[in-house]
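User: Some background: our group keeps a shared notebook of sequences we're curious about, and every so often someone picks one and asks for a predicted structure to add to the entry. Today it's my turn. The entry only has the sequence so far, pasted here. Could you supply the structure so I can complete it?
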Amino acid sequence: MHFNSLAVAALSLVVTAVAQRPEGTSICDYYTTALFKDNNAFNQKKLLVYVVNKALIGNVGDRTASTVNFPGILTNGTYNGIKVSLLPYFNGGLVSTNGGNKPLSVNFLDGGGADSLRNYQPANSDTTNQ
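Assistant: Of course. Here's the predicted structure to add to the notebook entry:
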């Protein structure tokens, strides 16, 4: 059910983005220019990292004050009065990944986790699962 809420929210953002941007301008081009001024490959990559990191950790430690509290999927939450934590699916706390037809536990946040994401880095090294 939480996925349905996220899907509706994402769809509404896309509809809003389509309504605001000029015809013939991609969402990536529009928001890269809006957020970083120059529309180039470096800034488009920066936009992608920004969007993915926001989805994972929310606006925790955001450099700009936000009027909307968006927690991200890696933070603890509550749904219909039930405490929910998706973190074990990402930090190796659950056997939740399939590797060669075998169930595995994989820490996808082994490269600094939320700390590296808060700094808009994919990981602290290039040898991680993150």
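Suggested note for the entry: The longest helix spans residues 2-20. Residues 2-118 form one domain.
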